Amino acid sequence: MRTALVTGITGQDGSYLAEQLLERGYRVVGVHRRLSAENHWRIEHLDALVLRYADLHDLGSLYDLVEEYRPDEIYNLAAQSFVPTSWTQPLLTAEATGLGLVRLLEAVRRVHPAARVYQASSSEMFGNSPDCPQNEDSRFAPASPYACAKLYAHMMVQNYRQAHGLFVVSGILFNHESPRRGLEFVTRKVAHGVARVHLGRVDKLRLGNLTARRDWGFAGDYTQAMWSMLQQDRARDFVVATGVDHSVEDLVRLAFETLGRDWREHVEQDPRLFRRNEVVRLRGDASRARESLGWEPRVQFPDLVRMMVEAEVARLQV
Ligand code: NAP
Ligand code: F7E
Asked: What is the atom index within ligand 1 of the atom nearest the CA of 146?
């Protein structure tokens, strides 16, 4: 039985990846951190999951887990992942999102260098790159402390691969969403807001910049690509994206249309929600993933929006 260690197990991607690894017959060791109140709503259905405490800030805790389990595969999904919080907590973001990966790689290098490691890199590293669409060779122009921290980790992946010969890869994933997305991210915020309007609980939804464009896919499709990257003969980085971008306004219009409503009657723009240094447009070119991994997104944007709105209505009606 192969063993996979997954950091960020309580997050959106951790839950989908754990499900898929368990289905493939892995022993899955999920890393969670000590909190004053449990937040296992995304993983409580996964009885076979082994949960262990560790924190990306604490080298010893990571070292002990790698030594104890000697995992065949390690997926580093843990991070401070919300861009606006990275402006209010830039040092914490650098510690967790940037240095956290290096702590993990140090543990791997010292006690179990045979492990294959996946790092959750981000399209935010491209920021306002002059290149569009963005592929593995596009220029980086990170526009937030989050993006800078991810770029540092991304470069460390390449350095540890070259200098230490570790099998470590970066998946440069564009935005991916699901009913398990955190409520602060725009897709879930919109789905939740539309459902609340529909059920008569509120009348207005406050949003920031409606012109920003993102390449949105379904999280469950993207976690399949993570696994595929670690099954390759050689360690390489991959962009994972749908290749199609939409504006936040497109998202809002579609979400309200799903329930037969006109978004213009319910959406207000709030200047406080505009970003300090907005990333205007991201669109990925996943040709390498298509050709080498045979990866394709299965869920298209309109179906994703419908899935999220319907899930939110069902959740609120319980
Ligand atoms: P998420 O829902 O925000 O989950 C983040 C996870 O990291 C949570 O399990 C969180 O634990 C954990 N975590 C945070 N700080 C930690 C620490 N110091 N020690 C241990 N665990 C810690 O993020 P996601 O959407 O699943 O994304 C997974 C990864 O992919 C992240 O690294 C994110 O930056 C990256 N990424 C995401 C996207 C996307 O569109 N979703 C795109 C590109 C890259 P708690 O539950 O305890 O907070
Ligand atoms: O914002 C605009 C906002 O917070 C998307 C993370 O998973 O993907 C995610 O980062 C866009 C931005 O995601 C609101 O200005 C408008 O242009 O959903 P988001 P993000 O910042 O793109 C990348 C790939 C990651 O790696 C990150 O970890 O939507 N927007 N109005 C809004 N955004 C939010 N959150 N809330 C609003 O009210």
From this structure: 34
